From TrEMBL, chain A:
Coiled coil: none
Pfam families: BPD_transp_1 (PF00528)
Residues covered by the ABC transmembrane type-1 domain: 100-311
Keywords, comma-separated and alphabetical: Membrane, Transmembrane, Transmembrane helix, Transport
GO cellular component term of the entry, any: plasma membrane
Membrane-spanning segments: 7-25, 100-124, 136-159, 193-210, 254-275, 295-318
Family: Belongs to the binding-protein-dependent transport system permease family.
Keyword Glycoprotein attributed: no
InterPro entries for the chain: MetI-like, MetI-like_sf
Cellular localization per UniProt: Cell membrane; Membrane
Bilayer topology term: Multi-pass membrane protein
Name of the protein described by the UniProt record: Peptide ABC transporter permease
Biological processes annotated in GO: transmembrane transport
Species assigned in the record: Mangrovihabitans endophyticus
Automatic annotation (TrEMBL), chain B:
Membrane topology per record: Multi-pass membrane protein
Residues annotated as transmembrane: 42-63, 104-130, 142-160, 166-184, 219-244, 272-296
Domain ABC transmembrane type-1: 105-293
One GO molecular-function entry: dipeptide transmembrane transporter activity
Entries under Gene3D superfamilies matching the protein: MetI-like (1.10.3720.10)
Name of the protein described by the UniProt record: Peptide ABC transporter permease
Pfam families: BPD_transp_1 (PF00528), OppC_N (PF12911)
Record bears the keyword Cell membrane: yes
Organism of derivation: Mangrovihabitans endophyticus
From TrEMBL, chain C:
Biological process according to GO: peptide transport
ABC transporter domain mapped to chain residues: 10-262
InterPro entries named in the record: AAA+_ATPase (IPR003593), ABC_transporter-like_ATP-bd (IPR003439), ABC_transporter-like_CS (IPR017871), Oligopep_ABC_C (IPR013563), P-loop_NTPase (IPR027417)
Protein's name in the database: Dipeptide/oligopeptide/nickel ABC transporter ATP-binding protein
Keyword presence, Transport: yes
Molecular function per GO: ATP binding; ATP hydrolysis activity
CDD domains per the UniProt record, alphabetical: ABC_NikE_OppD_transporters (cd03257)
Organism annotation: Mangrovihabitans endophyticus
Positions in coiled-coil regions: none
UniProt record similarity statement: Belongs to the ABC transporter superfamily.
Key words of the record: ATP-binding, Nucleotide-binding, Transport
Pfam families: ABC_tran, oligo_HPY
NCBIfam families reported in the protein's UniProt record: oligo_HPY
Length: 326, 359, 337
C-alpha cells in the first residue's frame, strides 16, 4: 500500500510539473496571438473570453508571474482550457471531449493488444532460442525502425482506393450520426482496422525484442536450473518460472515507454485523418491554435500518467516483493 | 514512430553472473575493440551507418539537381534522368533524399550528443552522490520520462517561431535524456560499491577524479548504447516534425519530402516513388542504429549473444538444439587422452542396461 | 551405514564448453563411484571442474556445455542399472528429483521469487505424481518443512520473506520430498555464516542416517569435507588427482595438491600446523600445461611431471586398496578409471 501511495504522489507531482510547463510554454509565443484573434473575430468575442485568453497566454502584464500562475490554476479547476481558435467560439474542453473517445479506443486497445501479442511472441523467441524464431529478429528490427506514419502511408497506398474494403480516412462513413447503433458501430470498426493494424505492426516488434532479451537473461537464473532439475515439464518451466519473472521488467518497461508510444500513435491518426486527439493536434498546429494544442498536450499527459499508474498496479500484483508483509 | 527502450542493460548488474563458479570463461580478449567489430550485427550496422554519414557529407555536392528546382517533368516515375522520379513541381526526388540526408544525420547526432551529456551529468551525479541529490535528480528524470516527449517537442517547436535545425536538435536533446540518465544512475550505483572505487575514496581521491577515471570508463558501453538510442529517437522526431509541418520547410529533410507527398495527394495519384525512398531511408538508418545497439547490448551481457552453432548431433543420433536444462550428450568420441578402462567397482564390471526410450 | 554397493557410477566422463576444435575440456576422463549411504566429498579450487562435473552428470549444464563422452550408471533401489546420459528427455524428467535431487550453490537464487514456498514444493509432487490429491500434497509439503525445522505455517511465505538459512533449509526439504537415493549438494552453504553452515550440514547428516540417501558434497572448503564426509575426491584441472577415505586423506595425503589444500586452512583438532597457501593460480583450461597439470605450481615436481600425465591408480601403500592418486611421486600398483 505504501508503494502505491508513493507512486500516486509521484504522478501528482509529475502532473503538477506538466501543468506548470504548460503554463510557461505559451509565454514564449512571440507577439500577441490574442490580439490577432480579436481582430479576426471582430466584435464576436465576449470580454470574459478575451480575459480568459489573456490569462492563458500570460499577457495580462499588470499581474506578476505569481498572480498569473494562480489565475491559471483557478481556470483549470473550472475546466476552462480557453477557447479554440480553429473551432471558435467552442471551448477547448468541448473539442477535446469530442475526440478523446476515438483516441482511447484506437490507441488504448491497440497498445494493450500489441503488448500482449509482442510479449507472447517474445516468450517464444526467447525460450526457443536458436530455432526458427531467431529469424523473426531482423524483420522485427526493421519494422520497429519504420516510422508509424510512413507505414500508414504505405497501407493507404496499397490497401485503399476505389472499390477497396478499407476506407482511407476518417473515423466513420460521412453522413452517419455517432451513436451506439447498427449503422455507426460497424462503420467505426471498419475505419479503425487499418490505423490499428499500422500501430500494431510497428509497435509489436519492440515488445518482442524486449521480452526475448528478458527471457534469455532470466533463463540463466538459478531457479530456472532448479526447475529443470525438479523434472518439471518444459511448458511449466517456460511459463511459470521463466516468463513469469521476465514479465516483471517488461511491465515496468511498458509503463515507461507509454509516453513514447502515444506520441507515435498520434501520428497515425493524422495520416488516416482519424478524428482523435492526434488529428486535432495536427489541425491546431496548422491554425496556430495554441489553446487547443496546450489542452491536448495536457490531456495526453494526464492520460499517460493514469495509464502508468495502472501499469504500476499491475506490477504490484505481479511481484510479491513490492507487496508489504501482513 | 517510437523507439521502445529494449536495452536490458538496466537489469544486468555486473555481479549477476549465474553460471556455476567453475564455469571456465574464455581468456580475456586482448583487444576488445576489434572483437566488437567482429560481431556481425555491429559490422553490418556500422557499414550502413558509414554510408549514411558519407552521403551526409557529400550528398549536397553529388546531388544531380537542386532539390527545390522546378522542371516540366511533373510527377514522373523513376527514369534514367530522375532515379527516384519527380514531384508535382518537377523536382528531383533523388536529389531531395540525398540533400536531406545531411540535415537528418546532423540533427540526430547533435541531439544525441546533447542528450548524452545531460544524461551523464544527471545520471552519474545522482548515482554517485546519492542522498537528497539523488532523490531530486531521479524525480526529475522520472518526470521527463513519463511526460510524452513527442507531443512536448511538437508544442515547443510550434511555439518557437523560427525553429531551425539547430533549435530542433536542442529541443529534442533537452527532452530525451531521461531514459539514459536512469540507466546510468543504476549502473553508477553498482559501480560505486565496487572495491576499487571504495579504495579510491578511502585514500582521499577527489570526487571528480574518481568519476572521471574510475567510473566513466566503465560506463562507456552504457553511454554509447544510450547515445545510439537517442539518435534513433531524434531522427524519428525530427522527421515527424517536418512531416506535420511544424518546422520550417526551407531546408530539406526526409520528413519534408513526406510532408509534400502527403499534402499533394501523392497517394491518390499513385506516385509511390515520392514517399517510398524517404521512408526506406529512415527505416534503414534506424535498422543500422538498432543493430549497433544490439551489438553493444550483447557486448555488455554476453548471454544475449546467439550462440554460434546451436544444433548438435547427439549420441542417440538425433540432432537437437542446445538449450538450458538438457545438456547434449555428443556423438563425438571421447578425447584422445581418454582411455577405455574398467570401472573401479569392486564387484567387477556392472552390467549396463541401456534403458530403452519409452514411447 | 555405508555399504560397498554402488548407487551411482561415473565412468570416463568428459564435459566440454563449446563445440568442435574450440571446445574447452572442463572435465577430463573422470571416474567416480558413489556408494549407497555414503557422503562423498568433492573438493578443489574454483575452475577445477567440480561443479561442472555435478551439472554435467545430471545434464543440467547450460549451453555451451556439452557431454563429450563417458557414462553415468545409476543403480535404482530395485531393478537393473541404466545409463542416465542415454535417457530420453521425458525419461530424464522423470528421473530428475525422484532419483537424484540437487541443492544448488546460490541458495538465495534457487527459489523462484514470484511463487510461494507451497507452490514450489507442490510443483515437484504434481510433476512426478499427477494423481496425488491436493490434500495429500499439502500434507507432504508440511511434513517436509517440519523435517528441516521450519514451521509449516511458513508454507504461504514468499522466498524474500525468509532468511538465507531458512531458504536453504527449504531447498533441502524440497530435495528430499520425493525420497531420492542421491542428493548432490553444490556449495550448499557458502552464502551462510559459519554457525548456520554447521547447523544445516549437521542436520543433513542426521537426515541421511534416518532416510538412507547418499550425498555428493561439493565445496572448496576442505575443512567441512573432512568433518562431514566419508570419502573425499580432490579435483584439479578437470581431473581427479586423489581419492581416499576422509580420515586417511586428512592424516596422510599423497598428492602435493591435496597437501597444499589441507595446509591452507587451520586444523580443527590436534596440533597446530603452519598455514600455507598454494602459490600460483589454477590452470587455464584453454591452455593446459603438458604432463601433470599441477606441475607448474608443484613444490615436488621432477622430470616426468612436465611430460606425461600420471594415471589415477591405487598407490603402493598398505592402505592402497582403499584409495587412489594420480602423481608420479607415488608408483601406481593398479590403474583405475
Amino acid at each position: 500500500m505504501k508503494y502505491l501511495l508513493q507512486r500516486i504522489a509521484f504522478y501528482v507531482f509529475t502532473a503538477w510539473a506538466a501543468i506548470t510547463l504548460n503554463f510557461f510554454i505559451p509565454r514564449m509565443v512571440p507577439g500577441d496571438p490574442v490580439q490577432s484573434l480579436i481582430t479576426k473575430f471582430q466584435g464576436q468575442m465576449s470580454t470574459q473570453a478575451i480575459n480568459s485568453l489573456y490569462v492563458l497566454f500570460g499577457l495580462d502584464n499588470d499581474k506578476g508571474i505569481w498572480g498569473q500562475y494562480l489565475d491559471y490554476w483557478k481556470q483549470l479547476f473550472h475546466g476552462d482550457l480557453g477557447l479554440s481558435f480553429t473551432f471558435f467560439p467552442t471551448p477547448v474542453s468541448e473539442v477535446i471531449s469530442g475526440s478523446i473517445a476515438w483516441t482511447l479506443a484506437l490507441v488504448g486497445i491497440t497498445t494493450v493488444i500489441s503488448f500482449f501479442l509482442g510479449t507472447g511472441l517474445g516468450v517464444l523467441a526467447g525460450w526457443r532460442r536458436g530455432s526458427w524464431t531467431d529469424g523473426l529478429l531482423p524483420v522485427t528490427t526493421f519494422l520497429s525502425s519504420v516510422p508509424y506514419f510512413w507505414l500508414g502511408l504505405i497501407a493507404i497506398y496499397l490497401l485503399t482506393g476505389p472499390g477497396s474494403f478499407f476506407p482511407s480516412s476518417g473515423g466513420f462513413t460521412p453522413g452517419l450520426v455517432p451513436a451506439w447503433d447498427q449503422y455507426f458501430i460497424p462503420s467505426a470498426i471498419k475505419h479503425s482496422l487499418l490505423p490499428a493494424a499500422t500501430i500494431l505492426i510497428s509497435s509489436v516488434s519492440g515488445w518482442i525484442l524486449s521480452m526475448r532479451n528478458m527471457m534469455v537473461t532470466v533463463a540463466s537464473e538459478d531457479y530456472i536450473t532448479v526447475a529443470h532439475a525438479k523434472g518439471l515439464s518444459d511448458r511449466r518451466v517456460a511459463l511459470s518460472y521463466a516468463a513469469r519473472n521476465a514479465l516483471l521488467p517488461n511491465v515496468s518497461g511498458f509503463a515507461l515507454s507509454l509516453g513514447f508510444i502515444v506520441g507515435g500513435t498520434l501520428l497515425v491518426e493524422i495520416v488516416f485523418s482519424y478524428p482523435g486527439l492526434g488529428f486535432q493536434l495536427f489541425l491546431a498546429l496548422g491554425a496556430k491554435d495554441y489553446p487547443l494544442m496546450q489542452g491536448i498536450f495536457l490531456v495526453i499527459t494526464i492520460s499517460v500518467l493514469v495509464a502508468n499508474l495502472l501499469a504500476d498496479i499491475a506490477y504490484l500484483l505481479l511481484d510479491p516483493r513490492t507487496r508489504k508483509e501482513g | 514512430m517510437t523507439s521502445i527502450p529494449t536495452s536490458s542493460l538496466e537489469q544486468n548488474t555486473p555481479e549477476g553472473a549465474a553460471m556455476p563458479a567453475d564455469t571456465t570463461k574464455p581468456p580475456k580478449p586482448k583487444r576488445q575493440r576489434f572483437r566488437f567489430l567482429a560481431n556481425g550485427k555491429a559490422a553490418t550496422g556500422i557499414v550502413i551507418l558509414g554510408i549514411y554519414i558519407l552521403f551526409a557529407i557529400i550528398g549536397p555536392w553529388v546531388a544531380p539537381y537542386d532539390p527545390g528546382a522546378r522542371s516540366n517533368d511533373l510527377i514522373q516515375p523513376p527514369s534514367a534522368a530522375h532515379w527516384f522520379g519527380t514531384t508535382h513541381l518537377g523536382q528531383d526526388v533523388f536529389s531531395q533524399v540525398l540533400v536531406g540526408c545531411r540535415t537528418v544525420v546532423m540533427v540526430g547526432f547533435l541531439a544525441g550528443v546533447v542528450a548524452s551529456i545531460l544524461s551523464v551529468l544527471i545520471g552519474v551525479t545522482a548515482g554517485y552522490l546519492g542522498g537528497a541529490t539523488d532523490d531530486g535528480l531521479s524525480a526529475l528524470s522520472n518526470v521527463f520520462l513519463v511526460i510524452p516527449a513527442l507531443p512536448l517537442i511538437i508544442i515547443i517547436t510550434s511555439v518557437l517561431e523560427s525553429a531551425n535545425d539547430l533549435l530542433v536538435a536542442l529541443v529534442i536533446g533537452f527532452t530525451s535524456w531521461a531514459w539514459n540518465a536512469r540507466v546510468l544512475r543504476a549502473q553508477t550505483l553498482s559501480l560505486r560499491r565496487r572495491d576499487y572505487v571504495e579504495a579510491s575514496r578511502a585514500t582521499g581521491e577527489k570526487t571528480w577524479r574518481i568519476i572521471l577515471f574510475e567510473i566513466l570508463p566503465n560506463l562507456t558501453a552504457v553511454i554509447a548504447s544510450g547515445f545510439v538510442g537517442t539518435v534513433i529517437f531524434a531522427v524519428l522526431s525530427e522527421i515527424t516534425l517536418a512531416f506535420i509541418g511544424v518546422t520550417s520547410n526551407t531546408t530539406w529533410n526526409w520528413g519534408t519530402i513526406l510532408f509534400w507527398a502527403q499534402g499533394q495527394q501523392a497517394l491518390a495519384q499513385g506516385a509511390w516513388w515520392w514517399f517510398v525512398p524517404a521512408g526506406l531511408a529512415i527505416a534503414f538508418l534506424g535498422t543500422a542504429l538498432s543493430l549497433v545497439n544490439f551489438a553493444i547490448d550483447e557486448f555488455v551481457s554476453p548471454r544475449l549473444r546467439s550462440a554460434g552453432k546451436t544444433k548438435v548431433k547427439t549420441a542417440s543420433g538425433r540432432t537437437v538444439r542446445m538449450r538450458v536444462g538438457f545438456t547434449p550428450v555428443l556423438e563425438a568420441p571421447a578425447h584422445a587422452d581418454a582411455r577405455p578402462v574398467p570401472s573401479i567397482n569392486p564387484h567387477g564390471a556392472t552390467p549396463v542396461h541401456r534403458k530403452e526410450t519409452a514411447r | 551405514m555405508t555399504t560397498s554397493e554402488p548407487v551411482l557410477e561415473i565412468r570416463n566422463l568428459n564435459v566440454d564448453y563449446g563445440l568442435g576444435p574450440q571446445a574447452v575440456h572442463a572435465v577430463r576422463d573422470v571416474s567416480l563411484t558413489l556408494h549407497r549411504g555414503e557422503v562423498l566429498g568433492l573438493a578443489g579450487e574454483s575452475g577445477s571442474g567440480k561443479s561442472t562435473l555435478a551439472y554435467g552428470m545430471t545434464r543440467l549444464l547450460a549451453p555451451p556445455g556439452a557431454i563429450s563422452g563417458g557414462s553415468v550408471i545409476y543403480h535404482p533401489a530395485d531393478g537393473e542399472p541404466y545409463d542416465v546420459l542415454s535417457l530420453s528427455d521425458n525419461d530424464l524428467r522423470g528421473f530428475r528429483w525422484a532419483e537424484t535431487a540437487i541443492v544448488f550453490q546460490g541458495a538465495m537464487n534457487s527459489l523462484n521469487p514470484v511463487h510461494k514456498i507451497s507452490t514450489q514444493l507442490n510443483d515437484v509432487l504434481q510433476a512426478h505424481d499427477p494423481k496425488m490429491s491436493a490434500h495429500a500434497r499439502n500434507a507432504r509439503c508440511r511434513e517436509m518443512l517440519k523435517l528441516v525445522g521450519i514451521s509449516p505455517d511458513r508454507m504461504e511465505a514468499y522466498p524474500h520473506q525468509l532468511s538465507g538459512g531458512m531458504r536453504q533449509r527449504v531447498m533441502i526439504g524440497m530435495a528430499l520430498i520425493l525420497q531420492p537415493q542421491v542428493v548432490i549438494m553444490d556449495e550448499p552453504t557458502t552464502a551462510l555464516d559459519v554457525v548456520m553452515q554447521r547447523q544445516i550440514l549437521g542436520q543433513l547428516i542426521e537426515l541421511r542416517e534416518r532416510l538412507g540417501f547418499s550425498v555428493i558434497f561439493i565445496t572448496h572448503d576442505l575443512s567441512l569435507l573432512v568433518e562431514f564426509s566419508d570419502r573425499i575426491a580432490i579435483m584439479y584441472g578437470g581431473r581427479i588427482v586423489e581419492e581416499a577415505p576422509a580420515t586417511a586423506l586428512y592424516k596422510d595425503s599423497l598428492h602435493p595438491y591435496s597437501e597444499g589444500l589441507l595446509g591452507s586452512f587451520p586444523a580443527l583438532r590436534g596440533p597446530r600446523r603452519e598455514l600455507a597457501g598454494i602459490p600460483g593460480s589454477p590452470p587455464d583450461l584453454k591452455a593446459m600445461p603438458t604432463g601433470c597439470s599441477f606441475h607448474p605450481r608443484c613444490p615436488k615436481a621432477f622430470d616426468p611431471c612436465a611430460e606425461t600425465i600420471p594415471a589415477l591408480g591405487h598407490p603402493d601403500t598398505p592402505d592402497g586398496g582403499t584409495r587412489s592418486v594420480a602423481c608420479w611421486l607415488h608408483p601406481v600398483r593398479e590403474p583405475v578409471g
